[in-house]
Amino acid sequence: MVTALLLEREGAAPLGAPHMHVREAAEVATRDEASSTIRGSFSLTGVSVAYGRDQVIEGVDMEIPPRSVTALIGPSGCGKSTLLRCLNRMNDELGNVTVGGRITLDGVDIMGKAMDPVELRMRVGQVFQRPNPFPMSIYDNVAYGPRTQGIRRKAELDALVEESLKGSALWDEVKKSLKKHAFELSGGQQQRLCIARALATKPEVILMDEPASALDPISTQQIEDTIAKLKDSVTIVIVTHNMQQAARISDQTAFMLRESLEAPAHLIEIGDTKKMFTNPDDPRTESYITGRFG
Amino acid sequence: MSRTSRTRRARSAEAVARILTGGAALGVVAVALFVLGYIVYNGIGAIDFTFLTDVPRDRGREGGILPVIVGTIWVTTATAALTLPIGVLAGIYLSEYAPRNLATRAIRLAITNMAGVPSIVYGLFGLAAFVLTAGLGRSIIASALTLTCMTLPVVITATEEALRQIPQDLRQASLALGATRLRTIYKVVLPAAAPGIITGSILGLARAAGETAPILFTGAVFQMRRLPEDLSSQFMSLPYHIYAQVTSVPGWNRTLVWGTALVLVAGVSVVSVIAALWRSAQRRRVKW
Amino acid sequence: MSIPPSHGERRRGRTTMRRAAEGVVLAFIYVCGWLAIIILAAIALFLILNSVRALNEAGLGSMLSGTAWYPTSNPGKFGMLPLILGSLLVTAVALVVSVPLGVAAAVFISEFSGTGVKDIMKSIIEFMAAVPSVVYGLIGVAVVIPLVKDVFALNSGMTALAGGIVLGVMSLPTVISISEDALHAVPFDLRQGSAALGNTRWQTTYKVTIPAASSGIFAAVMLGLGRAIGETMAVLMLTGNAAIMPTSVLESVRTMTGTIAAEMGEVVQGGLHYSVLFAVGLVLFVITFAINLAADLVLEGQRKRWRR
After folding, report:
1. A118 to B178: CB separation less than 8 angstroms, yes or no
2. pLDDT in tens, C1-13
3. B232 and B258 share a domain?
4. Total domain count for chain B?
5. Which residue of A has its CA nearest to B190?
6. CA angle, C74 as apex, C72 and C79 as ends, to 5°?
7. Contact C289 B113 (CB under 8 A)
8. What span, in angstroms and rounded, lies between the C-alpha atoms of A192 and A131?
9. Which comes out higher in pLDDT, residue C115 or B118?
């Protein structure tokens, strides 16, 4: 809680010299409580999203515990990806999107004016549906985020690149060719590069928007293995179409549904993945999971 | 009419159409080759060391064209230095920042219309605005500013198109890593779009180097004893030199004037064609 | 697992300096973005300001309808009609040359040629567009003028015809590339649909593709027209510049652009003649602006049609 408050101050503090004190304080607090406070938990209350006048999501309440995998499932067009983009405020970039309700990250409101979306995104990374490496070398791709944060020292960057590529299980395949152009990698490798790129900013949360939908089965397997390893250190929120995948990799599952084109999507049910797939509370969840629609 | 005769008629119509349109295309090629060949044939004889390194003598009937070449390089370089930053920033605005509204539509309309304003009108504008009102006098800088106004639409359009080719995915990826829009543009989008921007700009600048009307009243002179020293100097220029020789020097030296034309065309067209080929090669290499 | 707990504290964040620098760059971007409108407005403004004297003393109506252009007589006569008609006549000749040839070549490039031929044709068109107008003028002086003189047995080959032919060649790149774009933009499905009905390539082209691209081709013609009307150097060198009411393409004419270029060097700055030349520029600006606006609206309509 102390950390959370300090973080809130950090987010709101004017930048520059006075900022230093706050950050130093935060540093101390983090070190002290590194073992007790695990960061990266989201709390959503009454979240709604509208594209212009078109209400697409309404009344979503959701708790996302830290160091866990939360899967968002539901038929296409039910607003899973839109909801995901609320968590790192990527919807801001689309222009006419308004988000209502309250979203907090470790107790700090992320939708207020005090939160700079640019700084939020350093803490909440994202991996996209199609692999989208930058047109530069493997090394430069991974070092992009840290460099954005102002890290210039080569030794520090080298260490971060190695650590991140190990985190996404790509290190062994590319350690000898870090200067190679990222486009020379296969699709699956590119996607793991994108995961490494997201890890390099040391995020607390990584959002994944159908990260394996453009990949072959073997690459998909590798991505899933990576996710399983990563949840020890980061919170993962994943949107997926593939229910087997949700069942395999997630700890909790949220089912969203837009019941008609006129009505906005709702969160139908959220719960422990095992329970959701074996004994869901809502009949709509059951019929979706058993493949009756979607 | 039987089906076979209809097919036969369709086939012969097809053949006639191919011959006619192909003939037109061939005609265009023939004209282009004639233009190229005629310039080279008439001009090549003039090209030697003296021609490229001497000053014009006897009002241009003898001697070389060194100050003419140097003047063209001066004014084109100054134009490039002004046009590129402004044009690229404007292209970035249109591609990355401009909202979809009436104002942006008006900007686009202004750009296409700028491209259609006659070059002589730019000359009038340059005379009134830069030479007289701004007090720059007839000078390289006044001419360069005039040529900049004329070239800007080309550079802006080239930049905007090149930026639009860059997939939205890449911008999203960079933003999601906590980069600002500006950093995203500077680090990811601009480098990826650079080939298109550079090529388009070179094409625009090559045209500017060959323009006469905008510099007629803004700084080009018929004869200069010395090379230009700074941006406030007047200057000689290849296209203006050709025009002045043909229209105001009785008994102009055909060989030297064609030689001047060859130097101008070689400079302008070689650069343009290389730039165009390079761009299409780049387009084929990088598929998003 | 090698990733340690998150290190939020290591982030440097965005410093005040960096934000300020970004603000400055953004301001530049916005100013440059709006610069096109500013320049275009400035052009109009300067043309109008410098035309005021001419409009007051010579009068717009009498300038536009006057048939006598004797700017240096005392008092000067500033009837622009010979110049306007001269421009229109030369432009008309140019269109007769460039439209059929250019559109047919565009059809060939777009519909009947493979990638290799297409690339070569595009390079050639690029070359034609890159040749400076003064060089076209020079070729006209050396080739077209003697040719016109001999063929029509004239005293001088410096005629509207000579200027128009060269101008037509010069507008070819504009006409070809914009028509080709318009043909190219016609969706593949549409052609396939026609081919599936048993139409040959040419039947598809003239029944489906050309009608579908017609607005774009029309815009190409408009833009070629705009280019030809605004062209200066070649006409100045080729048309003989006699400011008389034209009656035939085999006579010498003087265009608006040529008049400005030839006379601006000899006038007194701020004088009536000077102002009248700006008025000629203003007329030219208004004409080309209208042409370009029309072409732009047509092209925009076409773009909307194929957007899916």
Report:
1. yes
2. 333 434 444 445 5
3. yes
4. 2
5. A135
6. 60
7. yes
8. 8
9. B118
DSSP B288: -
Q: Which fold has domain C69-307?
A: MetI-like fold (1.10.3720)
Alpha carbon of B117: minimum distance to chain A alpha carbons (Å): 35
Per-residue tokens: C303: 């773009």
> Could you give all domains of chain A from N- to C-terminal order, each with its CATH number?
1-37 (no CATH), 66-94+106-289 (3.40.50.300)
Residues B234 and B188 in one domain: yes
Of the candidates A167, A191, A193, the one whose C-alpha atom is nearest the C-alpha of residue A180 is: A193
Contacts of A205 in chain C (CB under 8 A): none
Asked whether residue B40 falls in the same domain as residue B94, the answer is: no
Task: Give yes or no for a contact between C1 and A232, defined as CB atoms under 8 angstroms apart.
Answer: yes
CATH value at residue B81: 1.10.3720.10
What does each C-alpha distance from C221 to A165, B214, C136 come to in angstroms?
57, 25, 20
Chain B nearest-CA residue for C38: B110
pLDDT tens readout for residues B44-77: 999 999 999 999 999 999 999 999 999 999 999 9
Best C29, C128, C210 member to test B by mutation, with max B CBs in 10 Å, is C29
Domain carrying residue B40: 3-45
CB-CB under 8 Å, C8 with A39? yes
Same domain, B138 and B163: yes
**Chains near C (3 or more Cβ pairs under 8 Å):** A, B
Contacts of A231 (CB under 8 A, 6+ apart): A67, A68, A69, A251
**Spatial separation of the C-alpha atoms in residues C149 and A217, rounded to whole Å:** 78
pTM for this entry: 0.87
Question: A150 CB near a chain B CB, below 8 Å?
Answer: no
d(Cα A144, Cα C303) in Å, to the nearest integer?
Answer: 38
Q: Specify whether B53 is located in the same domain as B25.
A: no
Examine the domain organization and report whether B18 and B64 are in the same domain.
no
